[in-house]
Write a sequence for this structure.
């Protein structure tokens, strides 16, 4: 049955936004869940992300009831390589959220790390916080360590500070330094502020380097530090407020 019954103009909250605020999925992920037919409202399968829900409606995802949004929380997760950052993978590959399911409430990620990339991934139960931290305007730098096969000069890395265009895509300023060489590989530290899809890999490939290991070690003020691979650690609310600042805290009601 369809849940698309007539609604008063302006009533309720769009389902994708509701699911995002409840920590079920990002708005884009929520739209995919709706397309998959796993979202129901009052027992009816939803078919459109334009549907608006009101507090008296019962919303379920995969049969699990979605409650009212909770206060914003944030976790550091040391993502291992081999996990995809998605709630449902069409290819059946293991996901970040499956790996963390027995240790966390429903969460979404702040940005993504691709299948082969490891390191710091921030997880939150609050869609508004995730969106805010992903915005380039927040100014938070993502820092990576990369091991890549090939030769690169300091001048090539220094030239990235003004940004670069690759295949018609413009990437903003990049800070890159050569840390050491190890046989035919180079270890580099790369800092970016935008986090476009596979940005670090594409930039290094453009320089003639083949990345064979990529680790995110920091996202803004939050560090991977000594967190063990696969481990999860919640960021205390006091520290979270200090790092987010009053403006963001006010936006998300923290």
């Amino acid at each position: 049955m369809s849940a698309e019954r007539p609604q008063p103009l302006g009533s309720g909250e769009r389902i994708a936004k509701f699911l995002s605020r409840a920590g079920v999925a990002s708005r884009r992920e929520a739209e995919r869940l709706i397309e998959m037919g796993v979202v129901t409202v009052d027992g009816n399968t939803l078919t459109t992300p334009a549907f608006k829900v009101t507090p008296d409606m019962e919303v379920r995802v995969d049969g699990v009831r979605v409650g009212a949004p909770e206060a914003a929380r944030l976790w550091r997760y040391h993502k291992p390589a081999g996990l995809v950052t998605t709630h449902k993978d069409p290819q059946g590959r293991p996901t970040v959220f499956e790996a963390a399911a027995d240790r966390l409430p429903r969460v979404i990620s702040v940005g993504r790390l691709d299948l082969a990339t490891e390191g710091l991934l921030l997880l939150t139960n609050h869609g508004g916080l995730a969106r805010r931290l992903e915005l380039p305007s927040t100014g938070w730098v993502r820092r990576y360590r990369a091991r890549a096969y090939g030769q690169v000069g300091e001048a090539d890395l220094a030239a990235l500070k003004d940004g670069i265009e690759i295949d018609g895509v413009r990437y903003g300023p990049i800070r890159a330094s050569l840390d050491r060489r190890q046989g035919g590989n180079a270890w580099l530290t790369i800092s970016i502020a935008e986090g476009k899809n596979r940005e670090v890999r594409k930039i290094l490939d453009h320089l003639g380097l083949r990345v064979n290991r990529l680790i995110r070690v920091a996202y803004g003020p939050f560090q991977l530090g000594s967190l063990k691979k696969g481990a999860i650690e919640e960021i205390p609310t006091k520290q979270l407020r200090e790092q987010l600042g009053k403006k963001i805290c006010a936006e998300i009601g923290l």
The first strand starts at residue 13 and ends at 14. The mean pLDDT is 88. The chain is about 25% helix and 30% strand.
